[in-house]
Amino acid sequence: MKRWAIGLLIAALALTVAGCSAVEDKIGEEVGEGIAGAIVGGDVDVDDGSVTISGEDGDVTVSDGGNEIPDGFPGDFPVYDDADLDSTSSITSGEGTTFYLTLTSGDEPEAVYDWFKAEFEAGGWSIVNDMNMNTGDGMTAIISVEKGDVEGSVTMDSADPGTDFGVIVTEK
Fold it and tell me: 87-115, pLDDT tens digit by residue?
């Protein structure tokens, strides 16, 4: 009888511990938020792929969009169709939202560069800066644009094979 009671107690304890994993996760999250908040001098909230830091100057939210274009990304900012989206993120503050995309394409850098130039011109974007350098190792280019309350840039670099490029867009 004593063995049976001990076995039942161990089984009940195991179920309780298994059911507490969500509680343990929540406690760990709150402890981490408290430590991070003490370091940055504000409140820190971690929630499903985003971190919000609240301080005297307002809130800043950093979100990891994974490999999908983040919600709120300006719809008229061109994104190269024949590319794989490697990662995305966004930072939102009182001054607006900045979106970051990293992409890879098998297309040559010159083709990617020409496509962006044509899309910006056709879409009414003002090209603020346009730098295109060809070296013995390949091509590197940066195009910076603006339109209304949106500023953006595309940085392209030769890869083997194709092009690696990043997009930074700030919407105020």
Answer: 888 888 888 899 999 999 999 999 999 99
What's the domain count of the chain?
A: 2
pLDDT category, 71, cuts 50, 70, 90?
confident
**pTM, 2 dp:** 0.69
pLDDT confidence of residue 3: 40
CATH number of the domain within which 130 lies: 3.40.1000
Query: Please, what is the average pLDDT of the chain?
Result: 77
Q: Are 142 and 117 in contact (CB under 8 A)?
A: no
Q: Which domain holds residue 9?
A: 1-41
Q: Where are the alpha helices (H) located in 90-159, listed in sequence order?
A: 109-122
Q: How far is CA 46 from CA 41, 103, 116, in A?
A: 16, 27, 36
Strands (E), 37-172: 43-47, 50-55, 58-66, 84-93, 96-105, 126-135, 138-147, 150-158, 163-171
* Residue 71 Cα distances to 29, 36, 84, angstroms: 25, 26, 18
Q: Using CB atoms within 10 Å of the CB of residue 99, give its burial: 0 to 12 exposed, 13 to 18 middle, 19+ buried.
A: buried
